Amino acid sequence: MFSEFTVASIPQIIFGAGKLNELYELIPKFGNNVLYVIGESSLKKSGKWDEISSRMEKKAINFSEISIRGEPTPTLVDEAVQKVRNHKLDVVVGIGGGSVIDAGKAISAMVTKHDSIKNYLEGVGTKTHDGRKIPYIAIPTTSGTGSEATKNAVITEVGIEGFKKSLRHENLIPNYAIVDPELVLSCPKSTSASCGMDAFTQLLEAYVSPKASLFTDALAKSGMIQIKDALIPVCNEKALDITTRAAMAYGSLMSGIVLANAGLGVVHGFASSIGGMFKVPHGVVCGTLLAESTRMNLKKLEHLGTEGKKGLLKHAIVGALIEGNESLEGLDILYYCSVLIDTLTKWTNQLNINRLSEYGITKTDIDKIVKKTSLKNNPVHLKPENLKEILITCI
Asked: In angstroms, rounded to a whole number, what is the distance separating the alpha carbons of residues 327 and 238?
C-alpha cells in the first residue's frame, strides 16, 4: 500500500546550458520595469552582467540593480525595499548564490509592505505574510541551496541573540527558475565545495527524514546519484566541464524540492543556530558537520534495535548508491552504512572544508549552540550530550 503524501508547489523550471537566453523572452511577459538583485562582484567579473545589461538595452527594457554582499539581513532587505518601492516594478530577477536568491525573494515580497521584514519572520515577528509579491525569477550561479525551488527566504542577523529565520509563504516560490550550468563555470573551488556539500546534505537529510515519501525519495536519490561522482571533480580537474557542472546543478535543484517537502535534520538544525551566532558560510557548517552528525544518527539508530532498522536501511541505500550498487542487490546494511560515513569523511577532507574553530567558535560556545538547535525532521532523537559530542569533534 502506498503511503500518503502531498507535494509543495515548484516554479516553472527551465534547466540546461545556455538557458539564460530565455530570460530575455520571459521578462516582457511581466512588463518593462525590472529590478536585478545580484552578487557584489562575481557576476560582473564573469562578464555575464555586461551581457545581460546589453540585452536589456537592446530590448529597451528599464532595469536597475541592487548588489548583495553576504547573507541577507533584515536591515539589508529593508533598505533595499526602501530604495525601490517607488520604481513601479513589474518583475524582480535574482541572479547569484543562495543568499542573492533569498534576498531577491524577500525584496519581491516586501515591496508590497510598509514595515520591516523582521515582523514577518518565523519565530521572530508577530505577523504572517499574505503572499502578495512582485513576480520573481530566480537564477542560481552556485549549486548548493536549491533556493530557486523553495517558498522561503532565509534571513540572518548575527550576534549573541542572533537568528537565521525564514520569511515563508506558498506564493513566494519563484515564478520561474532558470538553472543554467554555464553560469556556475566561474564558481571558485571553495564555493563549489561548500555549496556541493550543502546540496548533498539536503538530499541526504530529506531522504532519511520521517516526512520522506516515495516522491521525495525518488528525487533525492536521483540528486545524490548525480552529485556523488561530480562533487570532487567539479572542485578540481573538471571545474570547467559543463556536464559535471550540470550534474551538480541538477542535484542542487532536487535538494531544494525535497527539502521543501520532507524537511531537514540535525545538520541544518546546527546550521541555523550557528549561522545566527557566527559569520560562517552555510555550506561550511554543512560540510564540517555532515559526517559526524550522520555517524551519531547511525549510532543512535543501531541502539534502537528493530525501531531503528528502517533508518539504518535508508542510510545503507545511500551508501550503496555511492558505491554504484543501484540495484541494491545483497544489501549489507552495516557495510553500506560504513561506506556512507567513510565517503562523507573523505569528501570533507579532500575538499578542505574548514573546521568551526576557523570562524571563532570554541568549546565554550557549545552549550549555547545546542540550546538553539532544532531536531525537527531528524531520523532519530538526539540528546543534548549527543549534539555536544558532534560539535566537539568538529571544532
From this structure: 28
Q: What pLDDT, in 10s, does the model give residues 152-183?
A: 999 999 998 899 999 999 999 999 999 999 99
- The domain locations on the chain are 12-184, 189-394
Per-residue pLDDT reduced to its tens digit, 116-125: 999 999 999 9
Q: Is domain 12-184 in CATH 3.40.50.1970, yes or no?
A: yes
Residue 41: what pLDDT?
A: 81
Using the predicted structure, report yes or no on whether residue 1 has a pLDDT greater than 70. Answer: no
In the chain, what are the helix, strand and coil shares in percent, each to the nearest 5? 55, 10, 35
Average the pLDDT over 212-225 and give the result.
Answer: 97
Domain with residues 189-394, CATH architecture:
Up-down Bundle (1.20)
Q: CA 296 to CA 285: how far, in whole Å? A: 16
Of the pLDDT bands very low, low, confident and very high (cuts 50, 70, 90), residue 342 is very high
**223 and 143 in contact (C-beta within 8 Å)?**
no
Contact yes or no for 15/225 (Cβ under 8 A): no
Q: How far apart are CA 353 and CA 345, in angstroms?
A: 11
As a whole number of angstroms, the distance between CA 369 and CA 273 comes to 6
**Structure-block grid coordinates of residue 220:** 533525492
**Got the DSSP string for 70-136?**
SS--HHHHHHHHHHHTTS--SEEEEEESHHHHHHHHHHHHHTT-SS-GGGGSTTT-S---------E
CA atoms within 13 A on the CB side of 146: 29
Q: Residue 322 contacts by C-beta under 8 Å, 6 or more apart in sequence?
A: 224, 228, 339, 340, 343
